[in-house]
Amino acid sequence: MPGVAIRVAIITVSDGVAAGARADQGGPACEQTLRGSGLEHRVVSREVLPDEPKQIARAIRVRADAGETDLILLTGGTGVSPRDRTPEGVREAIEFEVPGLAEKMRWETARTLPAAYLSRQVVGVRKKTLVVALPGSPKGATDCLAAILALVPHAIALVRGERPEHPTKSGGSVR
Q1: SS3 of 125, please?
Q2: What is the pLDDT of residues 50-106, one digit of tens each?
Q3: Which of 68, 66, 61, 78 is CA-nearest to residue 12?
Q4: Whole-structure pTM over 0.85, yes or no?
Q5: How far apart are the C-alpha atoms of 69 and 113, rounded to whole Å?
Q6: How confident is the model at residue 25 (pLDDT cuts 50, 70, 90)?
Q7: Residue 131 exposed, middle or buried by CB count within 10 Å (0-12, 13-18, 19+)
Q8: CB atoms inside a 10 Å sphere around CB 172
Q9: CATH number at residue 87
Q10: Looking at the predicted structure, is the pLDDT value of residue 171 above 70?
Q11: Residue 99 lies in domain
């Protein structure tokens, strides 16, 4: 996908941010990580939602079904507190999960923060859109996003139905 900007929607999921009680830090942290990554991208929408699975699922459906986004990043609501409901909303909207990316995020971040295994990241696909649920803390969101960023362009190409060569650890590729 060289030369094609990935269209990104960023959705912050937080009761406090949605109510105006605190500032959004997760969404801007995701944007900063994307800017610093060298990944050619364009943020096409930003939204803040409360931890309500139906609203989360609807937002994913609207963006993915419109065909105007390649990647939806949700930040927040992936913990184990009673109001953390992002995974439920994501699962309601996606067609299938991509568990390896969620596993990679947890594994990479748990090397320095064992509590990362309590996070319930979910990655999946709806239509031709990759959907990634990240933690809400700026560090958690950026660390998790950084853990999978190298795989995102390849995953998006596959989701689009393209047949890209698989990247290898040595930097080459294989069919």
Answers
A1: strand
A2: 999 999 999 999 999 999 999 999 999 999 999 999 999 999 999 999 999 999 999
A3: 78
A4: yes
A5: 32
A6: very high
A7: buried
A8: 9
A9: 3.40.980.10
A10: no
A11: 6-161
Cβ atoms of residues 23 and 48 within 8 Å = no
Q: Tell me what pLDDT residue 3 has.
A: 57
- Specify the DSSP class assigned to residue 51: S
- Cα separation, 28 vs 46, in Å, equals 10
Residue 168 lies in a domain: no
Average pLDDT over residues 103-113: 96
Number of domains in the chain: 1
